[in-house]
Fold:
Amino acid sequence: MSTGLLLMIQKSQASKVVKVPALAESITEGTLSRWNKSNIISGEFFLRYEVGDFVQQDEEVATIETDKVDAPVNSPYTGTIVELYAKEDDTVSVDQDLFKIETGGTPAEETETTKEEAKEEPKVEKEEPKVEKEEPKKEELKEEKEEPKKEEPKKEESKERKKELKEQEKIPSPSPPKTDSKSATTLYGDREDRHVKMNRMRLRIAERLKESQNTAASLTTFNEIDMSNIIDLRNTYKDSIMQKHGVKLGFMSAFVKASVFALQEIPIVNASIEGPDGGDTIVYRDYVDMSVAVATPKGLVTPVVRNAHLLSFIEIENAIAELGKKARDGKITIEDMAGGTFTISNGGVYGSLYGTPIINMPQSAILGMHATKERPVAVNGKVEIRPMMYVALTYDHRLIDGREAVIFLKTIKEQIEDPRRLLLSI
Structure:
């Protein structure tokens, strides 16, 4: 082979080291949750990449779990994985070596090597049992030769054991622990404890919630809303909105619009405390970035609807639907959750009747929605059955007084009970 061809092969199959990419602002490390793979070979589904696997450029190779999101790691080259520098569940930092890839080649090379390995593996499996069968035979022969020589000691041992047994019969031997353990298993059945390490997102959520409780002077005020008019509005126009805009009309858009109006009327609820030693400065905002709590398999996340004060009902519903889908699919990014001036949490979708939400720091308040239930209420001196919802506002009493909190929640109540106010801004 000529030297020119060798140089061309070396250039086309050069080894490259792929490092951990930048995860997000202020995040310097994460946990390697898994090596991804989605190739189907010989009818089997492989979930993890291994040394020798072929990858395409921009193919997702690994997933790194951070405090807030799962960050994918894509291969910048097409080639074969030569070496993995980290194992699953290892902590990796930005710019750390993650894996080595030999660029070039084709997927056919991978299939040929796997076929050769598959042919060689059964040969090893057939040889092992033969060795296991031969060894016991030699040991048995040795034991058979040695046993006749040791007949007399056995007789002496049997006489001594008889004496010991007679002495043990005279002494009472307590055995309640054995019966207790058996009775315990029959009473409670087979049970076990499973210890599972908390993922980074759950740890971060726990840390943030505890930080909120330790920092804010949290207080909760309650009210109830007659949902009759907003339900009628939704039932009247939901089909038309679906046909024209392709989005379901829910209650979240109405509560976002009502909250935006209340925040503009009482701007202190949209403010926050910043500064050293717990804060010494109030930051007022003339815009509303609405955080919406979304439950995911890994924990609660709060993606942000930007400039909610400029959006219509339909635009708000579209934004919430897109962010919710990204969160449930694990594709939410740090940028989707950064910021936020006020949060709405809707525990009513799970049937919650009453609750006190925890403030999403550094915000100063959070609105909690709950389930709509039919209850008897007094209307114009008469008892009527109406669909009612309890709402809760948890606020930081360091910044927001009780008067502002009560008026804020009452404003939301008035907007929802008479949706015409949302259109007239009154």
The longest helix spans residues 107-146. Residues 205-424 form a domain with the Chloramphenicol Acetyltransferase fold (CATH 3.30.559.10).
